[in-house]
Amino acid sequence: MDLIRTSLIFAIAITLYYLLLQWPVDNIETAYIDQDSNDLLTMNDSEQSLSETLSPLSSAESADVSGGVEEAKYFEVQNNDLYLRIDSKTGRFIYSSLENISESKDSEETFRILGKTYDSESGKENNYFTNSGFYTRTQGYLNPEFSEISELKNNTENRTYLLQGTSNGMSFVRKMVMQNDGYAIEVEDTITSSIGDDITVTPYVVIERDASAVEESGLMYTYLGPVFSSTKDTYEKYDFEDIRESSYQNKSAGGWVALIQHYFLSAWVPDQSNDYLYQGRYGTSSDRYSLGYTSKDIVIPYGGTVSTKNTLYIGPKLPKQLAEIEENLDLTVDYGFLWWLGKPMYWLLDVGHGIFNNWGLAIIFLTVVLKLATWPLSAKAYVSMGKMRELAPKMQLLQEKHGDNKQAMSQELMEMYKKEGVNPLGGCLPMLAQMPFFLAFYWVLLETVELRHSPFFLWIDDLSAMDPYFVLPILNGAGMYLSQKLTPTPPNADPMQAQMMKFFPLIFAVIFAWFPSGLVLYWLVNMLIQIFQQWWYSRKATTA
C-alpha cells in the first residue's frame, strides 16, 4: 500500500512539473501587417493542386502602424471595447486594440492583437492583419481604395460605419455594425460594377500572420495557430507546422475560421446557409501564414451589385460572447481532453464571481462546491483511514509477532483489513479523486481571460501570476505535512519510502512556488478542507 501511495504522489509531482512547463508568462509584443500574401484558391479551383499559381495579394501601399502613420492612410472605427484601423487602399483591418484590457499588469498601454511590430532580437518585422472582399482572375484582389467614412447615428444600441470608394470602374461600400460593447463586427462588403462586360468575382476573407510567439514560458508555448470549424469537424487545430508541411483545404456548409493565442483570438464567421472552401496556406516569400475561406464565384453584369456578410471577432476568449456569435465558436476556449469537467467548472467559477465580485473568492467558492460534491467518496476513504488508526496497536502486535517475515505479516494484515472492513488504499483515494478536477481547473485557469491581471486580496494582485512572496506555496507545504501526520502509516512500511514521503511537502511547496497563485489557492483551500475531513472522521472513529 505504501508503495502505491508513494508512486501516486510521484505521478502527481511529475504531472505538476509538466503543467508548470506549459504555464505561459505574458510576454506580449504584438506583431503584424504587411502585404506579400499567399495565393488564393477559389471554390471552383478546389480540385486543382494547391501549388497552382493564382494572382498574389498586392503588396504595395499599406499603412505602417508601427510608427508615424499618415492620417490619410487609414480610417478608424470603434466602440467602448474595441478600436480598429482600416487601410484606405486595401480595406485591410491593420490594427486593433482592446480598450479595456491592458497589455501588461499596471501598464497604461492597451492590449493589441492586429498590428505590426519589429523584433529587435531577430531583426524581423512581425505582421498580423485580416481582410474581406472580392477576388477576380483577371485583376486579382480588388482593392477598394476607400476615400471617405461616415457614421450613421440612427441607433443608440450600436455604431454603424460606412466606408465608400471606387477602383477600376467599380464602386465599393463596406458597412460595419458594432454594438456599443463587445468585440464582434458585422461586416457587409458591397461591390457595384460599371464595367461593360460581365465580371466574375470570388468573395473571400483572410487572416494573415507570421508564426512569432506572443506568450511564452521558458520551455513550452501555449497553442498559437489556426482553428477551423466545419460540418466534418466542429473544432480542428491545424497548426503552423501542419500548414507548412501540407496546406489545409476543406469544403463545408457554414463553419468558421479563427487564429487563437492564449487568452485572445481573431475569427471570421460567414453566413451559415452557404458553402465555403476553407484554406490554410504558407507563403515562402513572405514567411507568413494565410487562413480563411472563399465562397462560390458570382457573375456581376454591368450595373449589377453583389454583397457579402461576415462577422469578424477580435478580442478575448469570452465563452458567452463567442457562443452567441456562432455555434461551437466558444470551443476556442480550449479546456483540453477534460473539457467535460472544465465547462461546468468555469460555469461555477462564473457563478461564484457573480456572487462575490472577486475571482479569488470565486475560486474558493468553486473549490468548496467541488469538495461537497465529492464528499461521500472522501468520507468513505477517511472513515477507512480512521479505522486503520484504531487498528494501529493490533498492527504493531502483528509486526512483533512476524518480525522480518513480511509475507506472513502482509497476509495476516489483509485478513484483518477484510474482517474489520478497512480499505488499505483508502488514503490514496481522496488524492486520486481530486486529480481530474485539479487538471481540469488548471486548463480553466489557463483559458479564463477574466483571471488575467485579476487581484485577490493583499499581496495577491494577479491570480494568473505566481505568488510574489511564496506565501500560498509555503502554506500548501505546511498543509501537506499536517495531512501526512493525520494519515496512518502501515507498520510494514518500507523505512526508505517513509523517509522519502517526509520530503514531499517541501517538494510540492517548491513546485507550487512557480504556479499561478489562482491554482495554488485552489489547491490550498482543497487541502484545508481535506485536513478538516481527516480530523473529523478520525475523531469520529475514535469516539465511536
Task: Provide a descriptive summary of the structure in words.
It is a single chain. The radius of gyration is 30 Å and the shape is elongated. Strand 10 and strand 11 form a beta hairpin. It contains 12 helices and 23 strands. It has helices at 2-22, 240-245, 319-325, 339-356, 359-373, 375-390, 392-402, 406-420, 429-447, 471-486, 495-512, 517-543, and strands at residues 25-26, 74-78, 82-87, 93-102, 110-112, 115-119, 124-136, 140-141, 146-152, 158-167, 170-179, 184-193, 199-209, 215-216, 224-229, 236-237, 248-253, 256-261, 264-270, 275-283, 288-294, 298-300, 305-316. It has 544 residues and is α+β, with helices and mostly antiparallel strands. The protein has 2 domains: 2-20 and 341-543, no CATH class; 31-334, Distorted Sandwich (Beta-galactosidase, Chain A, domain 5).
CATH class of the largest domain: Mainly Beta
User: Over all CA atoms, what is the radius of gyration?
Assistant: 30 Å
**Low-pLDDT stretches:** 1-10, 17-38, 46-72, 216-221
Shape, per Cα inertia axes: elongated
Q: What is the residue-averaged pLDDT?
A: 78
**Total count of strands:** 23
Secondary structure: helix percent: 25-40%
How can the largest sheet be summarized?
9 strands, antiparallel
Strand content: 25-35%
Q: Give the spatial strand order of the biggest sheet.
A: 9-10-11-12-23-19-18-15-16
Number of helices: 12
Number of domains: 2
Q: Which architecture name of the largest domain does CATH use?
A: Distorted Sandwich
Structural class: alpha+beta
What name is given to the CATH topology of the largest domain? Beta-galactosidase, Chain A, domain 5
Please report the distance between the alpha carbons of the first and last residues.
Answer: 26 Å
